[in-house]
Design brief:
The strands form four sheets. The protein has a six-stranded mixed β-sheet, with no helix packed on it. It has a six-stranded mixed β-sheet with strand order 5-6-7-8-12-9, covered by helices on one side. It has a two-stranded antiparallel ribbon with strand order 10-11. It is an alpha+beta fold.
Length: 230
Protein backbone atom coordinates (compact mmCIF):
# COMPACT_ATOMS: atom_id res chain seq x y z
CA UNK A 1 0.00 0.00 0.00
CA UNK A 2 1.26 3.47 -0.91
CA UNK A 3 -0.22 6.32 1.15
CA UNK A 4 0.43 10.04 0.78
CA UNK A 5 0.03 12.14 3.90
CA UNK A 6 -0.06 15.78 4.91
CA UNK A 7 0.52 17.00 8.45
CA UNK A 8 -0.14 20.51 9.74
CA UNK A 9 -0.23 22.28 13.09
CA UNK A 10 -2.83 25.01 12.58
CA UNK A 11 -2.03 27.24 15.59
CA UNK A 12 -5.67 27.17 16.78
CA UNK A 13 -6.57 28.76 13.42
CA UNK A 14 -5.85 32.23 14.77
CA UNK A 15 -4.99 35.13 12.46
CA UNK A 16 -1.37 35.78 11.55
CA UNK A 17 0.08 39.08 12.72
CA UNK A 18 0.83 39.69 9.03
CA UNK A 19 -2.71 39.00 7.76
CA UNK A 20 -5.26 41.73 6.98
CA UNK A 21 -7.82 42.38 9.70
CA UNK A 22 -10.66 41.06 7.55
CA UNK A 23 -9.06 37.58 7.38
CA UNK A 24 -11.28 35.28 9.46
CA UNK A 25 -11.21 31.67 10.65
CA UNK A 26 -13.48 30.56 7.80
CA UNK A 27 -10.88 31.92 5.36
CA UNK A 28 -8.24 29.74 7.02
CA UNK A 29 -10.57 26.74 6.86
CA UNK A 30 -11.07 27.24 3.12
CA UNK A 31 -7.32 27.62 2.56
CA UNK A 32 -6.63 24.39 4.46
CA UNK A 33 -9.16 22.53 2.29
CA UNK A 34 -7.61 23.95 -0.87
CA UNK A 35 -4.13 22.89 0.27
CA UNK A 36 -5.25 19.33 1.03
CA UNK A 37 -6.90 19.05 -2.39
CA UNK A 38 -3.88 20.59 -4.12
CA UNK A 39 -1.56 17.95 -2.66
CA UNK A 40 -4.14 15.16 -3.07
CA UNK A 41 -3.11 13.74 0.30
CA UNK A 42 -4.69 10.39 1.18
CA UNK A 43 -4.45 11.02 4.91
CA UNK A 44 -4.43 14.41 6.64
CA UNK A 45 -3.11 14.86 10.18
CA UNK A 46 -4.06 18.11 11.89
CA UNK A 47 -2.88 19.46 15.25
CA UNK A 48 -3.80 22.51 17.37
CA UNK A 49 -7.38 22.76 16.21
CA UNK A 50 -9.74 25.07 18.13
CA UNK A 51 -12.44 22.37 18.35
CA UNK A 52 -13.40 23.16 14.76
CA UNK A 53 -12.24 20.56 12.22
CA UNK A 54 -11.80 22.06 8.74
CA UNK A 55 -14.26 20.66 6.22
CA UNK A 56 -12.55 19.04 3.23
CA UNK A 57 -15.12 17.76 0.69
CA UNK A 58 -12.86 14.92 -0.50
CA UNK A 59 -12.21 13.52 2.99
CA UNK A 60 -13.96 12.12 6.07
CA UNK A 61 -12.87 12.48 9.69
CA UNK A 62 -11.88 9.23 11.41
CA UNK A 63 -12.40 8.67 15.12
CA UNK A 64 -12.48 11.41 17.76
CA UNK A 65 -10.51 14.64 17.88
CA UNK A 66 -8.83 14.39 21.32
CA UNK A 67 -7.66 17.45 23.22
CA UNK A 68 -3.89 17.73 23.67
CA UNK A 69 -1.79 20.19 25.68
CA UNK A 70 -2.81 22.79 23.07
CA UNK A 71 -5.89 22.33 20.93
CA UNK A 72 -7.29 19.18 19.36
CA UNK A 73 -6.13 16.52 16.91
CA UNK A 74 -8.01 15.28 13.84
CA UNK A 75 -7.38 12.66 11.16
CA UNK A 76 -9.01 13.00 7.74
CA UNK A 77 -9.00 10.15 5.21
CA UNK A 78 -9.94 10.25 1.52
CA UNK A 79 -13.42 8.90 0.84
CA UNK A 80 -12.15 6.14 -1.46
CA UNK A 81 -9.99 4.70 1.36
CA UNK A 82 -13.05 4.46 3.61
CA UNK A 83 -14.53 1.41 1.84
CA UNK A 84 -13.67 -0.66 4.90
CA UNK A 85 -14.26 0.99 8.26
CA UNK A 86 -10.74 1.95 9.42
CA UNK A 87 -9.67 1.04 12.92
CA UNK A 88 -8.86 3.99 15.15
CA UNK A 89 -7.59 4.56 18.68
CA UNK A 90 -6.15 7.21 20.95
CA UNK A 91 -2.89 7.03 22.89
CA UNK A 92 -3.00 9.19 25.97
CA UNK A 93 -3.90 12.77 25.15
CA UNK A 94 -1.04 13.20 22.69
CA UNK A 95 -1.87 10.90 19.76
CA UNK A 96 -4.68 9.46 17.70
CA UNK A 97 -4.22 6.61 15.25
CA UNK A 98 -5.89 5.13 12.21
CA UNK A 99 -5.04 1.72 10.75
CA UNK A 100 -5.49 1.15 7.03
CA UNK A 101 -4.67 -2.43 6.08
CA UNK A 102 -1.24 -3.21 7.53
CA UNK A 103 -0.30 0.44 8.12
CA UNK A 104 -0.96 2.34 11.36
CA UNK A 105 -0.69 6.13 11.12
CA UNK A 106 -0.28 8.08 14.35
CA UNK A 107 -1.15 11.78 14.45
CA UNK A 108 0.85 13.31 17.29
CA UNK A 109 1.26 16.48 19.30
CA UNK A 110 4.04 15.52 21.66
CA UNK A 111 5.17 17.24 24.85
CA UNK A 112 6.65 20.68 24.11
CA UNK A 113 9.81 22.22 25.51
CA UNK A 114 13.56 21.79 25.21
CA UNK A 115 13.80 19.80 28.46
CA UNK A 116 10.98 17.36 27.67
CA UNK A 117 12.97 14.98 25.48
CA UNK A 118 12.56 12.01 27.85
CA UNK A 119 8.79 12.58 27.97
CA UNK A 120 8.59 12.69 24.18
CA UNK A 121 10.62 9.49 23.94
CA UNK A 122 8.24 7.80 26.38
CA UNK A 123 5.25 8.97 24.34
CA UNK A 124 6.74 7.57 21.13
CA UNK A 125 7.46 4.28 22.91
CA UNK A 126 3.80 4.06 23.99
CA UNK A 127 2.66 4.52 20.39
CA UNK A 128 5.01 1.77 19.21
CA UNK A 129 3.81 -0.63 21.92
CA UNK A 130 0.11 -0.01 21.23
CA UNK A 131 0.14 -0.10 17.42
CA UNK A 132 -2.06 -2.89 15.99
CA UNK A 133 0.01 -3.42 12.81
CA UNK A 134 3.65 -3.98 11.92
CA UNK A 135 3.85 -0.91 9.70
CA UNK A 136 3.88 2.37 11.61
CA UNK A 137 4.04 6.01 10.54
CA UNK A 138 4.28 8.62 13.30
CA UNK A 139 3.76 12.15 11.99
CA UNK A 140 2.66 15.52 13.26
CA UNK A 141 4.00 18.16 15.61
CA UNK A 142 6.59 16.02 17.35
CA UNK A 143 8.26 18.99 19.10
CA UNK A 144 11.49 16.99 18.78
CA UNK A 145 14.92 18.50 18.37
CA UNK A 146 17.53 17.17 15.94
CA UNK A 147 19.57 15.91 18.91
CA UNK A 148 16.76 13.49 19.85
CA UNK A 149 16.74 11.49 16.62
CA UNK A 150 19.43 9.03 17.69
CA UNK A 151 17.41 7.91 20.72
CA UNK A 152 14.27 7.66 18.59
CA UNK A 153 16.17 5.56 16.05
CA UNK A 154 17.14 3.17 18.86
CA UNK A 155 13.42 2.41 19.23
CA UNK A 156 13.51 0.87 15.75
CA UNK A 157 12.23 3.86 13.78
CA UNK A 158 13.74 5.52 10.73
CA UNK A 159 14.22 9.22 11.39
CA UNK A 160 14.44 10.92 7.99
CA UNK A 161 13.73 14.62 8.41
CA UNK A 162 11.86 16.89 5.97
CA UNK A 163 13.94 18.56 3.25
CA UNK A 164 13.65 22.00 4.86
CA UNK A 165 12.66 23.31 8.31
CA UNK A 166 8.96 23.02 9.10
CA UNK A 167 9.19 25.96 11.50
CA UNK A 168 11.06 29.07 10.42
CA UNK A 169 10.17 32.26 12.24
CA UNK A 170 12.84 34.09 10.26
CA UNK A 171 10.60 33.68 7.20
CA UNK A 172 7.17 33.19 8.76
CA UNK A 173 6.26 36.25 10.85
CA UNK A 174 3.04 34.68 12.14
CA UNK A 175 3.82 35.91 15.66
CA UNK A 176 5.04 39.42 16.39
CA UNK A 177 7.11 38.36 19.38
CA UNK A 178 9.61 35.61 20.16
CA UNK A 179 13.08 34.61 19.04
CA UNK A 180 13.70 33.92 15.36
CA UNK A 181 14.82 30.36 14.68
CA UNK A 182 14.19 27.36 12.45
CA UNK A 183 13.39 23.79 13.50
CA UNK A 184 11.91 20.47 12.38
CA UNK A 185 9.10 20.24 14.93
CA UNK A 186 6.65 18.88 12.36
CA UNK A 187 8.15 15.70 10.91
CA UNK A 188 7.71 11.94 10.67
CA UNK A 189 9.20 8.63 11.82
CA UNK A 190 8.49 5.21 10.30
CA UNK A 191 9.05 1.56 11.16
CA UNK A 192 11.94 -0.21 9.46
CA UNK A 193 9.67 -2.02 6.98
CA UNK A 194 8.57 1.28 5.41
CA UNK A 195 10.14 3.89 3.15
CA UNK A 196 9.24 7.56 2.85
CA UNK A 197 9.53 9.28 -0.54
CA UNK A 198 8.54 12.54 -2.22
CA UNK A 199 8.80 14.73 0.90
CA UNK A 200 7.73 18.37 0.68
CA UNK A 201 7.40 21.46 2.90
CA UNK A 202 4.92 24.27 2.24
CA UNK A 203 7.28 27.10 3.14
CA UNK A 204 6.66 29.39 0.16
CA UNK A 205 4.40 32.43 0.36
CA UNK A 206 1.34 31.74 -1.77
CA UNK A 207 -1.12 33.91 0.13
CA UNK A 208 -1.25 37.56 -0.92
CA UNK A 209 -4.44 39.22 0.33
CA UNK A 210 -4.94 42.98 0.14
CA UNK A 211 -1.23 43.39 -0.51
CA UNK A 212 -0.22 41.37 2.56
CA UNK A 213 1.79 38.15 2.25
CA UNK A 214 1.39 35.72 5.14
CA UNK A 215 1.06 32.11 6.28
CA UNK A 216 -2.05 30.74 7.98
CA UNK A 217 -0.04 29.06 10.78
CA UNK A 218 3.27 29.41 12.56
CA UNK A 219 4.04 25.85 11.34
CA UNK A 220 4.37 24.93 7.69
CA UNK A 221 2.31 22.13 6.21
CA UNK A 222 4.47 19.21 5.13
CA UNK A 223 4.08 15.68 3.89
CA UNK A 224 5.37 12.75 1.87
CA UNK A 225 4.44 9.30 0.59
CA UNK A 226 4.92 6.14 2.63
CA UNK A 227 5.09 2.61 1.23
CA UNK A 228 6.59 -0.83 1.91
CA UNK A 229 10.39 -0.80 1.95
CA UNK A 230 11.97 -1.98 -1.30
Amino acid sequence: MEISFLTWNLALMTRSAQAPQHWEMYNTEAYVADTVIKHSADVVLLQELPGLVPYVPTHSMVGPNPKTHSGNLAILVKHELMTDEPRWATVGSFASTVTLGDLTIANVHLEPGRGADSTRLSQIRQIIEQRPSEGLLIAGDTNTRVSETEAIGELGLKTQRPPRPTWNSKVNKFNQTGAEFSAYFSRWFVSSNLDVTKPWVGDKHDLDVSGKKFFVSDHFACGATVSAAS
